[in-house]
Amino acid sequence: MIGIVEDMRCTVQDMLEWAGGCFSEYRIPSPEVEAEYLLSEIFCCKKGELYLRRGDRLAPDELKRFSDGVKRRMKGEPLQYIIEKQEFWGLDFKVTSDVLIPRPETEHLVEEAINEIRGQDSEYRGQGVETRNPISGTRYPKLILDLCTGSGCIAVSIASEIPEVSCFAIDISDAALQVASENAAVHGVLERIEFIEGDLFEPLEGKGLKRRIDIVVANPPYIKWDTIPTLQTEIRDFEPEVALRGGRDGLDFYRRIIFGAPDYLSEDGFLLMEVGYGQSGAVRAIFEDSGYTWAVDIKKDYAGIDRVVKARFSIA
Asked: In CATH, which superfamily holds the domain spanning 104-314?
């Protein structure tokens, strides 16, 4: 079936049928949908427009880009890496193999953070309080820390939704931070997010942020080491392993974040973290055994799965 791409007379309809057949042969889910999505990205058009152009012939460069993309997808590479794009929170984010592909489930984490920020801002305004962020100088001083930021989808989504927010976004990968910075620039929030390379809280030392962060958000690595070889090809062979490995029991980063956050959270500040399937009870236990005062709540996703752990910090 690959030989069809050598025919320069190929039309849109020819290529959709060819790609759909290739994807079906390799048992890729929704083969026709993926073929349409890939070709619409090549043409920079909506999927519905492809059928208005089904008799059009592809230019040589379009033919090559499409056939190369099909071959990459047949090897298991996620479509998002091929087109370098994923929608999240209604925004398009650049994604490369240096970052995890944003998942819809993570939008629950963003939603919880935004709701909390808006609720607190309403309290300030209702009391007639007008103060300024000690770091950014913005009104209604909401300072957010995004750990393991990856593509920056969490920090960028929050900042794009709430103009008063300032963010620090940390990742151990410089390549990931380059992608995140590009996303922040595209969505007009780069001036309100400081991207920092480092390991969790370590790069914040000396920045004057002790007990000044209002909300810490994190979608940390949470896959058990011995589980990684069993993951589907798209994840195991293509997504960055450093963003997956959560230690022997998958909880290493939760321990470090829960024990590190009290140095930076303000009184009644919040720590919000996404958790993997079946992990919420173990993460709650870490909070309870930490020696700090936390009020922990578990939020479910639309499938009824525990997805976000939300904890209010109190200074004893």
From this structure: Vaccinia Virus protein VP39 (3.40.50.150)
